[in-house]
Structure formats: C-alpha cells, structure tokens
Design a protein that fits this description.
The chain has 98 residues and is mainly alpha-helical. The protein has four helices and no strands. The chain is globular.
Length: 98
C-alpha cells in the first residue's frame, strides 16, 4: 500500500476515491488501509461496520498481524469475540507412507 511506502497523501486520496466511487468496497479492507495510515479510530469504526455488514473477510481478523496494534482495544476485542473462526478443528493429516 502507498502508505507503507511513505506516500500518505496518495494513499488517503485512494481511500477517498474508493469510498466515493459508488461501488462496494469492503469495510474490513478499508479498515486495514486506515491502519496503514495510522488512523486507528477510523480503522476500528470500519471494522465495526464490517461486522454489522457480516463481511466474510472478518474470518481472517483473528489471525491478521496488521491488527496486532489495536487488538487489545475493547471495541476490537469485542469484534474478534463475535467472529467465528473459518475452521474450528483441523482434520488429522493422513499418514501416506512410513
């Protein structure tokens, strides 16, 4: 993302264009973009929107390293508690050879 490369203004402009474009844009991914821009409060708001919209992308949130900086916030912890893991149990791996 442009924000990671020091192009904050370009990244903010891109997010603004995505929001105004009239097409569906995932609140989850916009939240990650806002985290890259160090806009943590806006990122949390977008993650809450993603939860309200039942965005399936949220199944990745418990394992998303980009959320580590805000994972302890009460609002984020509440979101993560409501997200059901995509895979609860791993199937045993069959032993194919000895």
């Amino acid at each position: 993302m442009q924000a990671d490369n020091g192009h904050r203004a370009l990244a903010l402009d891109t997010v603004t264009q995505l929001r105004a474009g009239g097409r569906y844009v995932s609140a989850y991914f916009l939240g990650l973009a806002m985290l890259a821009l160090d806009e943590q409060d806006e990122a949390v708001t977008l993650l809450q929107q993603a939860l309200e919209r039942h965005e399936w992308f949220l199944v990745m949130a418990p394992h998303e390293p980009r959320l580590d900086g805000i994972r302890e916030r009460p609002a984020v912890a509440a979101i993560l508690r409501q997200v059901k893991p995509a895979v609860r149990h791993h199937a045993p791996v069959p032993q194919l050879w000895t």
